[in-house]
Amino acid sequence: MSGPDARTATRAEYCVVACAETWRGAGEVLAAAMGTVPTVGARLARLTFAPELLLTDGEALLVDEVPALGAPARSVEGWLPYRRHLALVATGRRRVMMGAAQLDLYGNQNISLVGDRGRPRRQLLGVRGAPGNTVNDPTCYWVPRHARRVFVERVDMVCGVGNDRAGAAGPSASRHHRLGEVVTDLCVLDFATPDGRMRLRSVHPGVTADHVVEATGFDLVVPDTVPRTRAPTAMELRLIREVIDPSGFRDREVAS
After folding, report:
1. CB 101, CB 111: distance < 8 Å
2. Between helices 36-47 and 11-21, what is the axis angle to 10°?
3. Neighbouring-strand partners of residue 122
4. Contact 101, 151 (CB under 8 A)
5. pLDDT in tens, 125-168
6. Are residues 173 and 134 in contact, defined by beta-carbon separation less than 8 angstroms?
């Protein structure tokens, strides 16, 4: 299929494709995408290599046709009330991409507060569903601004459970615990190391491994050779620009 030249892809569109890849091979599970770029990515995955993915309207409906961002679903294939949604969470039938105010070397995530827990400098979202997500469902993270204040030596409060803590807690926490990729505006990271530490997996165009290391507040595992993040295909660019996000909301989250 002809379409836009992949050489015109923006940083945001590379991030969309990297997020979409986290749902490749997931099977018939609910895609729980939090954030604009992950949402575009989940819809792109559904329209291309993961047609079995289940998508919601963000409330209580499973959508059939993939709507553009901000548009109502024209076709609905099911009702997903809160009780059934929680049943999916508890049985591992979701694949989640959450945000993170802080992440550490082992993937412990904080979205609750910044500073001392007894007297925080910033109050954020609270723990929300992060513990349940991470011990029940495969979980990835999206960080739109890769910086040392996000990638920290030690998170101020653990919300999403990292590999070290899940292992230490035993089978009740580790049986279904699986952290996938961390997609940022600079790179893709993962935990494919023997001890579950964070590793640099690929860098986006115009970014070097040294750049990522400099923007990370702990000793990241960096392979000898770091590949480039996969470029969007012409078909993927057309779907992103014309079908899923014609208003360009993705560029508000990741500047070109």
Report:
1. yes
2. 60
3. 114
4. no
5. 999 989 999 999 999 999 999 999 999 999 999 999 999 999 99
6. no
Give the span between the Cα atoms of 100 and 96, in whole angstroms: 13
Whole-prediction pTM value? Answer: 0.94
Residue range 175-211, pLDDT digits in tens: 999 999 999 999 999 999 999 999 999 999 999 999 9
What is the pLDDT at residue 58? Answer: 82
Q: Let me know how long the chain is.
A: 256
C-alpha span between 211 and 200 (Å, rounded)? 11
β-strand partners of 118? none
Place of tokens 């802080």: 102
d(CA 127, CA 12): 28
Q: How far apart are CA 41 and CA 61, in angstroms?
A: 19
What are the DSSP calls for 189-254, one per residue? EE--STT---EEEEE-TT--HHHHHHT-SS--B--SS-PBPPPPPHHHHHIIIIII-TT-THHHHS
- The pair of structure tokens assigned to 116 is 């001392």
